Amino acid sequence: xxxxxxxxxxxATHISLAATRSLGQKGIExxxxxxxxxxxxxxxxxxxxxxxxxxxxxxxxxxxxxxQIVKNEKFDVLLPGGSDLIFTISKYRNKFSPYxxxxxxxxxxxxxxxxxxxxxxxxxxxxxxxxxxxxxxxxDPSNMKELAIEIGFPAVxxxxxxxxxxxxxxxxxxxxxxxxxxxxxxxxxxxLIQEFIKGKPxxxxxxxxxxxxxxxxxxxxxxxELPPTGGTQIYCISTRQQxxxxxxxxxxxxxxxxxxxxxxxxxxxxxxxxxxLEINPRFYGSLCLAIAAGVDYPYLLYRLAMDGDIEPDxxxxxxxxxxxxxxxxxxxFSYVFRNRAAMSxxxxxxxxxxxxxxxxxxxxxxYFVMSADDPFPAVVNSxxxxxxxxKRNIYKIKNKNLSLIRDEIEEDR
Length: 413
Fold this sequence. Notes:
disordered C terminus, alpha/beta, 3 domains, 42% helix
């Protein structure tokens, strides 16, 4: 009888949950690791073992924990999640390579993806269309007015380092641009300013072998993002778009990529051309969509590591949908309701969004976390969210009461 493989997956979030389910359903023994003892992947029926590592900001301590786990348990493949952790593991690959296979890109390749300015400059040199961008070294209070005239409003301010919507802000006037940019730099470090492009969000994902040859690709359109102004896709559909296909393969080939990567684009309403935004060097949030569309990245990555290579196949199902119902879409509805005046300019109205929210059954519809085959992660995810919400509200009420008491004391004085 053939021995089943053993895989260690880090960063046990909903992203690693999709990978755990994919591998576990094929008889591969999956172990998940996280510093959070309540990571939802731990509650999956396909997670056979779990390790809770040190809760620390010191990467060396976490790395030592991980090396010890890999050394003791003899995993066939290590699949790291989280951009920072992937870079660290790639950098210290020699600590892991005697004990396991690690199908990820080189440190030099990953370094390009960590900094948005480096990523955009690399893409621009290849002639890949990008939004009009001013980089940190080009921005100065003295030229902010000229910059604003060229880019127009709203302008987008992004930290060079960061993922998702973290630190991203918008400015609608010169005064606001100067203020927001200064605050962003102070909080997040070097940042860039981009033109705001009105259009549809798209993403691509691709798998490359160790010789930087493409083996799989999947393209999706974002139907909802959180926040609605631009962020993480929480409802998406698989589709095809030739220019995104071409740009994805060209960019990753030039970067000498190995493993999986996710790329973000926006389809510009002005010319219907995709503009490249950024790269994630890891499993991405809507991984479950690609799996449902027939591009089973976790298993393909496992095979790539174990067998050395796989045959190229760029076919996948289109029209497959995936949504992160709770709590992400609930947050989306709440955001639209609270900001309904501003959201109306984007044709987002609470009544329409609510009707979309309660449309739970559609052809080819899948869910990020919810699964009849594996229900406990969704249950735990809901409990953790609700309990966290209650705790935050209690904290706010207590602080509000303390403020009232302080005000009364001040008045008595």
